[in-house]
Amino acid sequence: MKPRPSLDLAGTAEFLKSGACKSVYVLTGAGASTGAGIPDFRSPGGMYDSLRPELITATEAQRKRMRMDPVNVVMKDMFFQNQFPYLEVRRPFILGTQQQQWKATLTHWFMRFLEEEGLLKRLFTQNIDGLDYQTGISPELVTNVHGSLARVSCEGCGYEMPFDDFCAQVRTNVKDIYRTDPTAPAESSNINCPRCNAPLVKPNTVLFGSSLPSEFFEQLDDLNGADLLIVAGTSLVVSPANSVVMYVAKDCLRLIVNKEPVGQDLGIRYGKDATRDVWAGEVSCDEAFLDLIKMLGWQDKVRKIKHLLPESNQAMVKDL
What we know:
Residues 2-299 form the Deacetylase sirtuin-type domain. The protein is of the alpha/beta class and 320 residues long. It has helices at residues 9-17, 60-68, 76-81, 84-98, 106-116, 163-173, 214-219, 244-247, 285-296, 299-305, 311-317; strands spanning 24-28, 120-125, 142-144, 147-154, 160-161, 201-205, 228-232, 253-257, 277-279.
């Protein structure tokens, strides 16, 4: 049996330092990137919430679908009928990713610190923003469960297109429905695949109605060897990514970093019913991981990279 730490953040830190914890797996969601100020498509005021279908290049029937449910913008069948809704809605996000408009947060850097300590075995991220890679984390340790904006390929033939080449065509071919870029074209035109000439080139994000990457399913069995599972910034309602919490062994410690308790329907237990689950409390991901960093004595790691953090995080660590 593994040593049983106290079921709080301090106990988790002691377990990480104890030498008994050798294998850490992580599942992250949108909350990991909140401190970066990156757009959250689903939150109130986000891109889906403020969607204006009348500005999107689409038929009236397609606009009706988007009014009924904005998620239709990223549905597979919609994309194969008409690529412009996806590209027009995500235009600023695609170009902002290329320009590194958003910076990796303390939460992203904590995963890099785990790797430096030889503890991180795998990071499953549901985020498509690619911010994890800004930290220099080893790409082979990262599974992009829902794909990534920073890689581009043809949904038809699979041809992979250089990201910078794709972004150049997004600038010249895709109109700006948010009306913030005066250099954007007045109307959208196709971005065709260099190999098959179909207008199906897009970032490697998983469209609703498509299968997740096969490596996600192949790697689930590895979770049985985890000593600690960290779940950060995710509501645990999106399947099958949320199944990660059920693949760890029954004696594996699970740290839930989210402003509210989640995953009770998946067997996570809080308070007096908890036997292996720790809730970090009503704090942001960045606040929780900063507390852990202090408990672990990793302040020097943060000092070395604090100039790379987003402004909101720099304010948090200025007295570190």
